[in-house]
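hey m, so remember when u said the tokens were messed up on ur end? i reran from scratch. heres the input so u can diff it against urs
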Amino acid sequence: RLYDEGDRRIWEEFVDGSVNSALYHRIQWKDVVEKTFGHKTYYILAEDPGGIAGILPLVHLKSICFGSFMVSLPYFNYGGICAETPEAREGLLKAAIGIGTEKKVKHIELRHAIDLDLGLPAKSAKVSMLLALPSSKEALWDSFPSKLRSQLKKPEKEKMEARTGRLDELDGFYRVFSMNMRDLGTPVYSRSFFKNILESFPESTWICTVYMGGEPVASGFLAGFKNTLEIPWASSTRQYNKYSPNMLLYWSALKFAVEKGYSTFDFGRSTPGEGTFKFKEQWGAKPVKLFWHYWVRDGGPVPEINPKNPRYNAVINIWKRLPLSVTKLLGPGIVKNIP
């Protein structure tokens, strides 16, 4: 059945108690997505005589450019079906397909960290990079190879400093993030998106920012769930990259994770062999394969709504040359429909 507001407590209790749940199964993301982007959401519960046996959050995206489709969960690495039994899993998938068919969507994308037996085509080229954390920052430092420790000293020599906060660090984060997204040719989220996340998760979200001469030069958004601290968004300004602010950013975030008692640090999604993968690998992070499953109406090809699709090359190159003020104005209206 579909979720209603009276189900908030039992949804959260299920997420907190399930070994299969991820950060993005938390019900507050429904609030964030609806408030920020205005998308229609379909949160589905599977029940058995013992209570809730599974959940599936779905977001419906519709645009002229990309068509009509559903994702669990757009903008994030995880989501998908979280079920305690095969029967609940099958029921949730059937319900999702029923809603997708009724709404005439082109496809449904389910983002999983495990290869569920769904009988659906899947993409598995992406991985999450996870680092097991020791109990102290000293042990963490000792675990790094000498080359990495040497690199970590560089930003300190440049008198860079890192600060971790919440709303007080939002402006610095968004300044760095919006510049980086423009330089990558990617539309930027609105500032309100991150503000809404911070307000919806007051106990488990933070921003870490590196400053040089009072100027924000690198910044990352941190979100915790159970034993894991994740950094879903991290950026630096290109003109300062030679001073390695990213090294201080990640070292500060890792120390913060240890101090907060997290045992795993999630560096986020990467493609094996690419630059971001190698950057994360040097910290000792290990790849964990992701499985994104697809139901496609009429059995068509698996969709390719991503920056590596050649059909978007021209638009990306134009976007890189636009003034920052223009990309901040136009970006949120475009990126809301890019999952």
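this time it looks ok to me. The chain has a mean pLDDT of 92. if urs says something different then somethings off w ur setup not the seq
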